[in-house]
Specification:
Elements lengths: L41 H74 L5 H16 L2 E4 L11 E9 L6 E7 L1 E4 L2 E4 L1 E8 L1 H24 L7
Parallel strand pairs: 2-6
Antiparallel strand pairs: 1-4, 3-6, 4-5
InterPro entries: GrpE (IPR000740), GrpE_CC (IPR013805), GrpE_head (IPR009012)
Keywords: Chaperone, Coiled coil, Cytoplasm, Stress response
Organism: Streptomyces triticagri
């Protein structure tokens, strides 16, 4: 008995494409993207908008508060700088004024030596150098004969009456005054003269005589009848 050998023309069974077999050539359906998903409800969008608006308002409020704080700090710093600068200038002026006050007796000696003709030689050069230095530092001398007496800058050491003055006048400068800037370091020590009281009395007498003359004229003319 012979065995049957399969021939070359017989092909093995190949599964045919049925309903259960996916077709390799058929394109796959694309899955929906998140953007193409279902739209969010209108209520959720409104709530998100309200929340974002509230957060934006909070941020704006915080920014305004921080800006105000920064401006306040900047103003306080500028005021502090001005106070420090003002105090620095004031301290410097006080120190210079104190130094110049200590030099005033030396300047008085120089002035007396100049009046007596003793300011000569090397002493003259030293004195002139000292006066130049204190002038550069801002020291100013004041007080002249013939100017009206001012109690805020003058100190009267002598008093007299004079017929040729119409107000209290400085007739002699005993010691010059000195000022530094707006600060009076030492008032000028002066002798003052006032108008003579007799001049006012004479004027008053002339007035009385004129009044008496007017009364006499009234009497001579009969004057008003007395009731």
């Amino acid at each position: 008995m012979t065995e049957e050998t399969p021939g070359f023309d017989e092909q093995p069974d190949v599964p045919s494409g049925g309903a259960d077999t996916p077709d390799a050539t058929e394109p796959k359906a694309a899955s929906p993207s998140p953007e193409e998903g279902a739209a969010a409800p209108a209520g959720d969008v409104t709530d998100q908008t309200v929340a974002l608006t509230a957060q934006l308002d909070q941020v704006r409020t915080a920014l305004g508060e921080r800006t105000a704080d920064l401006q306040r700090l900047q103003a306080e710093y500028q005021n502090y700088r001005r106070r420090v600068e003002r105090d620095r200038v004031a301290v410097k002026e006080i120190a210079v004024a104190n130094l110049l006050t200590e030099v005033l007796p030396v300047l008085d000696d120089v002035g007396r030596a100049r009046e007596h003709g003793e300011l000569t030689g090397g002493f003259k050069s030293v004195a002139e150098s000292l006066e130049t230095v204190v002038a550069k530092m801002g020291l100013q001398q004041f007080g002249k004969e013939g100017e009206p007496f001012d109690p805020t800058i003058h100190e009267a050491l002598m008093h007299s009456y004079a017929p040729d003055v119409t107000e209290t006048t400085c007739v002699a400068i005993l010691q010059p005054g000195y000022r530094f800037g707006e600060r009076t370091i030492r008032p000028a020590r002066v002798a003052v003269a006032e108008p003579q009281p007799g001049a006012q009395t004479v004027k008053g007498g002339e007035g009385d005589e004129a009044s008496d003359a007017a009364d006499a004229v009234d009497k001579d003319s009969g004057g008003p009848d007395e009731g």
